[in-house]
Structures are given as structure tokens and as C-alpha cells.
Amino acid sequence: MKIGVLTSGGDAPGMNAAIRAVVRAGISSGHEIYGIKDGYQGLVQDQMDLLDSHSVSGMLSLGGTFLGTARSQEFLQEEVRLKAVENLKKREIDALIVIGGDGTYRGAMELSKLGIKTIGLPGTIDNDIAGTDYTIGFYTAVETIVDAIDKLRDTSTSHQRCSIVEVMGRYSGDLALFAGICGGAEFIITPENPMDKKAIIKKLKDHKAQGRRHAIIVITEKIIDVHAFAKEISEESGFSSRATVLGYIQRGGSPCPEDRILGSRMGSYAIDLLNQDIYGVCVGVRDSRMVHLPFANVVGQKKPKNELYSLVTRVSS
Ligand code: ATP
């Protein structure tokens, strides 16, 4: 077979490990693998190159995606997608492995309807894809956030401050949850674990009265204006407070071992599926085992609330 591979949406550490596995496992199964530049944009603009085993050497440790990624608005139009399909057909590429988030999966579903055999791999730091326990890039981002929390705790203790750390995760609070637990945050506020501002300020007052020297609040983006919240805490709790928005730092960096393994397993599994003529599905990991589900069962679905939330009430604050 001739198989295309692309990365789309936000980049995530471990995407390169997944591409490398697709290339190496694909070649060892006798396929030709084409790397498509900048996500669906490259598909439309016919930017794709045949990859050999050597072209993915040294990729495991690199963050980002060497194929490039993009958010292609024009790909939402049917006539543009038809152009992409025409480009694939012209090169006799019959299957496509896409690595990205929910939007990327939607694009793949549309291509399936136009006769392309598609497989999806979950590549996003947010861990917001249903049908998989973890997404490629999540654990590296957790590590980056924990590192930031540890550093902020040092300075918060010195200055007797309350630090608010805003992290990514539009549709899932898993980044805040995991990093908050690892970083010993006093409060973890996420879409699944909403905040009660008054209760937090009251607890902070109690902490201050007990002589505690610092507090850390980890919060998912887009819940509240964290700088205004820091001001309120400073005025009402007795702690001076500062907010830090980690932003795109969370996306970068060399992938941690978990993401290198997950990317490698998922990339290789995608080739196994195509070898068995299975497509129209996305790959996941459940209880450490590789699984696959039809796109329709995953796209737009919310993940169940993570069981780690039971720890928050027991070990935080
Ligand atoms: P992240 O979770 O990092 O944001 P994502 O894959 O969800 O990743 P999006 O920007 O939502 O990122 O989607 C990536 C691309 O997928 C879009 O730029 C667009 O080209 C394509 N896409 C998204 N939704 C659709 C759709 N309904 N139909 C066709 N293509 C789509």
C-alpha cells in the first residue's frame, strides 16, 4: 500500500515518535509511507514526500512535529477536501494516518466518506479524546507543568505567597488534575471540579492563620480571569497572590519516555490495523492495551471524569 501520514491541530511531544513508528513499521510491512507537510493544508497543496527509514532517524527525542502542523480553515469546505482526495488518488495513496485531536478526527471522518482509508492517532497534550486513557503528549506536558509548580512553590514559600498556575485543557481538566496532584497543589480547579471562590478564600484565610507559608492553585484555562482572581485573593485572604499563565511552554520540549512509548506503540498499531484491512477507526490505549474504535464513537464525546478526582479531596488542601 501507499500510506500518507500527517499531524494536524496543536502539536504535541511524541508526535515524532508516532510518525517514526508509522514509517518504520510501514516499511517493514512492505508499504510506501508519504509524509504530508502541515496537516490537511499539505494534503490540499499536494506537499508530500516519500519517507525512508533514515528520514526518521534521531526523531524520537524531538518535541513538536517534523512534518509541521496547521489549522486549515479551508479544509472545512467540501470542494477543498475533494481537491485533497484528488491529490491522494493522483499519487495512488489509498490510506491516511492522521495524528491530532478531535478536529483532526472530524477531518479524517470526512475523508473516509470520500473513499480514503483513514486511521486516527490521538495527539494532543490535553488528554481530551474519548476512547483512550491517554493521548500522545499528555505526560510530557504534565512533567513541564509539575516542573513549573515546583519552581513557583520555592518562590511562593520565600515570599509567603499564593501562586495561581493556569494550564491548558479547554475540554478536559486532566492537565490540571495530574499536575496539581504531582505538584502538591492545595487547590485544583477544572471544568470537572468547579471552583467556589468564597470557599477557597476562606480556606486560604484558615491556612494563613495556621501559619502556612504558601499555597498553590492549579486551574484550567478559560474558567476565570486568573489575574483578577489573584487580586481578590490578595485583598481578602491575607496571602499576597500572583497568577502565572504557562501558555505554549506546555506544548514544547523533548517527549518523556511515556510519550515516546505511546507514540511508538500507536504508530505501529495503526500499520497493524491497515495490514488487516481495518480503517475508519481511531487508536487508543485502555488499561495499557492498544484498542481501536470507529471515529463516530469518539468524535465529540466527552471523557468520563477521571478517577483521580477522588484523590483531590483526600490529599489536597
Ligand atoms: P487540538 O486538540 O490540539 O486543538 P485538533 O485536531 O482538535 O487538535 P483543530 O484545529 O480543531 O485541532 O482541527 C485540526 C484541523 O482539522 C482543522 O484545522 C481543520 O482543517 C480540520 N477539521 C476540523 N474540524 C473539521 C470538520 N468538521 N470537517 C473537516 N475538517 C475539519
SSE blueprint:
Blueprint: E1 2-7, H1 15-28, E2 32-36, H2 40-44, E3 48-51, H3 78-90, E4 95-100, H4 102-113, E5 117-122, H5 138-159, E6 161-167, H6 174-182, E7 187-189, H7 197-209, E8 215-220, H8 226-236, E9 240-245, H9 257-275, E10 281-286, E11 289-294, H10 309-315
Parallel strand pairs: 1-2, 1-4, 4-5, 5-10, 6-8, 6-9, 7-8
Antiparallel strand pairs: 2-3, 10-11
Helix pairs in contact: 1-9, 5-6
The structure holds adenosine-5'-triphosphate (ATP).
Would you count the extended β strands for me? Answer: 11
Strand content: 15-25%
Q: State the separation between the terminal residues, measured CA to CA.
A: 55 Å
Average pLDDT, to the nearest integer? 95
Return the structural class.
alpha/beta
List of distinct ligands in this structure: adenosine-5'-triphosphate
Q: Measured on Cα atoms, how large is the radius of gyration? A: 22 Å
Main β sheet profile: 7 strands, mixed
H and E order: EHEHEHEHEHEHEHEHEHEEH
Query: Percent helix among the residues?
Result: 25-40%
Task: Going across the biggest sheet, name each strand in turn.
Answer: 3-2-1-4-5-10-11
Number of helices: 10
List low-pLDDT spans.
none
What is the global morphology? elongated
Describe this protein's structure:
With about 325 residues, the protein is of the alpha/beta class. It is about 40% helix and about 20% strand. It has ten helices and eleven strands. It has helices at about 15-30, 40-45, 80-90, 100-115, 140-160, 175-180, 195-210, 225-235, 255-275, 310-315; strands at about 1-5, 30-35, 50, 95-100, 115-120, 160-165, 185-190, 215-220, 240-245, 280-285, 290-295. The strands form two sheets. A seven-stranded mixed beta sheet has the order 3-2-1-4-5-10-11, sandwiched between helices. Strands 7-8-6-9 form a four-stranded parallel beta sheet, sandwiched between helices. α5 (about 140-160) crosses α6. The radius of gyration is 22 Å and the shape is elongated. The N and C termini lie far apart (about 55 Å). About 50% of the residues are buried. The mean pLDDT is about 95. Bound molecules: adenosine-5'-triphosphate (ATP). Adenosine-5'-triphosphate binds near residues 100 and 107.
